[in-house]
């Protein structure tokens, strides 16, 4: 295995109400909305990106929020749980903060690590774990300090319809190393400091149904454009059918569905989210690719107004 991904690049999910989506990920979790754009394949729908201050690979969760979207069902062929990593000692802060917004949490242990599990406003499965690795956040919102703030992804739990084949893809295509197995899960680890731990339940899952509250795809990191071409060749020579390279403005992408049913993307680290707007004002303006600029007025008129705002805690 010559190619090894550093880990997760981004995770993309479906949502309903766009403002509720912003309120949860920016207002409650304190992430920065680093890009406000549209689904290039459906310009009447937002594509919103939330992450650290720079929108670094390994920190970005993205959404296609569309009012009235039908609810999905989490299951096989999806990311079942998205993990976020915070500094050591920060879990009690998040337990209290989430409780203040009326969000139920559960503490659970997996491979000797304690996780705080909860769901977002659409029912998307999330969890927070403490780890030393990963640079502290330099983005502060609503009084969340660097010692408490989310650093980025801790990893993910992959729900597979064929877990043996999904594990094979992680090891033999993406270059993850199998780190542990406990009878319920197998754990795989990549070379990065964040987004580097992937757990796979050792049971085949029934198919999920896409819709609000479910993940559409998980993207893995390619360090540059040249390596991205190598990744495409590797995927194809492994018997899969990757898409052509697609320019997504902020990264190049290829997609393929692994044999356990999960849609995988491989995305380049460059050029990043300051590709079309200043780093200090990321996420403030609706950014459109050149081919949609002539239709800006029509596109903006069809989109639900949104803003990043401090969200008041629930009354207890």
From TrEMBL:
<dbReference type="InterPro" id="IPR004360">
    <property type="entry name" value="Glyas_Fos-R_dOase_dom"/>
</dbReference>
<protein>
    <submittedName>
        <fullName>Ring-cleaving dioxygenase</fullName>
    </submittedName>
</protein>
<dbReference type="Pfam" id="PF00903">
    <property type="entry name" value="Glyoxalase"/>
</dbReference>
<dbReference type="GO" id="GO:0051213">
    <property type="term" value="F:dioxygenase activity"/>
</dbReference>
<feature type="domain" description="VOC">
    <location>
        <begin position="152"/>
        <end position="269"/>
    </location>
</feature>
<dbReference type="InterPro" id="IPR052537">
    <property type="entry name" value="Extradiol_RC_dioxygenase"/>
</dbReference>
<dbReference type="InterPro" id="IPR029068">
    <property type="entry name" value="Glyas_Bleomycin-R_OHBP_Dase"/>
</dbReference>
<feature type="domain" description="VOC">
    <location>
        <begin position="7"/>
        <end position="131"/>
    </location>
</feature>
<keyword id="KW-0223">Dioxygenase</keyword>
<keyword id="KW-0560">Oxidoreductase</keyword>
<dbReference type="InterPro" id="IPR037523">
    <property type="entry name" value="VOC_core"/>
</dbReference>
